[in-house]
Design brief:
alpha/beta; 14 strands; 6-stranded mixed beta sheet; single chain
Length: 214
């Protein structure tokens, strides 16, 4: 059985997930920790629970999901793993901060360790995450699906009763609708952990989300 710790981060209230199992290996998904206290919370949770982080995964390259990457490199030697479609985005977090929010960031952001491919398997402990390419919010958006536990980490592709915006560079409403149709094929009882907001299930979204259909 997996444990999922949610740490809500930065000014956009992004969900950073630390996912571990009984082996104490873990993956960090979308480390958006911007403020020092948020970064400390991430590090303290990992160390305080005796966890060994083996992957830093990014559902996409937008800054609010990757603010904390330098800390994960410094503390645990991890570099982000992201789909090739967002490789440029994730290496220009400081530029995104200046362009969108007028923030000046004076730290180096690590280059990706690995470029994720659709249907690739990410392993940690006794569990596996399947990479599902879900472009639309950005070119390289992906979700991570754990079939063993019926859990999906959906990034900014699917929210509770909503979907990610498609008006940013690289976004596409047509693509995100196609991606949602792919997610709709998952079992109804799949718990969805989104990039912002509260959890939901595939079944609930099929019933109530106007963007979802089979």
């Amino acid at each position: 059985m997996i444990r999922i710790e949610t740490i809500v981060c930065n000014m956009l209230e992004e969900n950073c997930y630390i996912v571990s199992d009984s082996t104490n290996e873990c993956v960090v998904i979308d480390c958006g920790a911007y403020y020092p206290e948020e970064r400390k919370q991430v590090v303290d949770y990992i160390r305080g629970n005796g966890l060994t982080p083996v992957h830093l995964l990014a559902t996409h390259g937008h800054l609010d999901h990757n603010f904390g990457n330098p800390t994960l490199l410094q503390e645990f030697g991890l570099r982000p793993e992201v789909n090739a479609g967002d490789e440029r985005l994730i290496t220009h977090v400081a530029h995104q901060a200046a362009a969108f929010y007028g923030l000046e960031i004076n730290e180096d952001y690590p280059l990706p360790e690995h470029l994720l491919e659709d249907m690739e398997t990410i392993r940690f402990g006794q569990h596996e995450l399947e990479v599902m390419a879900t472009p639309g919010h950005s070119r390289g958006s992906v979700c991570f699906y754990c079939q063993q536990e019926s859990v999906l980490f959906s990034g900014d592709t699917l929210f509770n009763m909503s979907v990610g915006r498609t008006d940013l560079h690289g976004g596409s409403m047509m693509q995100i609708i196609q991606s949602l149709r792919r997610l709709a094929q998952l079992p109804d009882d799949t718990t969805v952990y989104p990039g912002h907001g509260r959890t939901t299930t595939i079944g609930q979204e099929l019933m109530h989300n106007p963007y979802m259909e089979r």
